[in-house]
Amino acid sequence: MELRDQYYHELSLIKEARIEHVLNVAKEIFNESTIHQTKIKTIAKRSGIGEATFYRYFGDKTTLVKWVSLSYWEELTKQFYQYYTDEIKPKNSGYRKVESFLHIFELLYQEHKDFIRFTDDYDNYIRDIKEKEGSFEALQLSVKEMFVDLIKQGIDDATIRNNLSPKEAYDMMAQMFMSILQRLTVRAGHLKIEYGLSIERCLEQYIEMFMNYIKA
Q1: pLDDT tens, 168-201?
Q2: What is the CA radius of gyration of the chain?
Q3: pTM for the model
Q4: 18-72 confidence digits (pLDDT tens)
């Protein structure tokens, strides 16, 4: 590699590292406050960059928010595929594979509460944005395709009822469990009825309910 090419290569690496640093700082600040309340100057200051540099990297706040979402999904998708290899794939029926799949929500609660809070905050923020698409949707679709395939396996091996629509099952499952996680994580303790509520126990019960719903 020529000296000039090496120079520009190193500059690109520095820029990537700075962008990754800004994304991590933004995650911390969003977790402390909300996306709506967070100012660009706050993120720039804590990241150690100027506001002009921020706009050069991201263009605007909405782009940053989408990049943060993408960063979360990329990280979690890698972890999920490892979980799939270790925990889901070895199971001997489609039904048991789906059951193992659902336990990923327990791991989300145990290890990624910041992500759960962000998804709730993101949903509120993105409602006011005209352009709602984000590149992270491709990652979500890959997980959807995997779940749909597991349902089909269960239908084929007769462990899951054959009148179930795999895609509808995914949509219901995703809405059900993410809504539960968001509510129990973000709003736990706000209502008297929720005092002393075990989130782990709730998730166990909801998993059991869903598995009874799809069982052949």
Answers
A1: 999 999 989 888 888 877 765 544 445 566 777 8
A2: 21
A3: 0.79
A4: 889 999 999 999 999 899 999 999 999 999 999 999 998 888 999 899 889 888 8
Among 65, 194, 84, 202, residue whose Cα is nearest residue 136: 65
SS3 215: strand
Report yes or no: 166 and 137 within 8 Å, Cβ to Cβ. no
CA distance linking residue 150 with residue 167, whole number of Å: 11
Q: How many helices (H) and strands (E) does the chain have?
A: 10, 0
Q: Which of 3.40.50.300, 3.30.360.10, 1.10.10.10, 1.10.10.60 is the CATH number of 1-59?
A: 1.10.10.60
Q: Which among 71, 62, 80 is positioned nearest to 25, based on CA atoms?
A: 71
173, two tokens: 């499952």
Q: Are the C-beta atoms of 135 and 65 separated by less than 8 Å? A: no
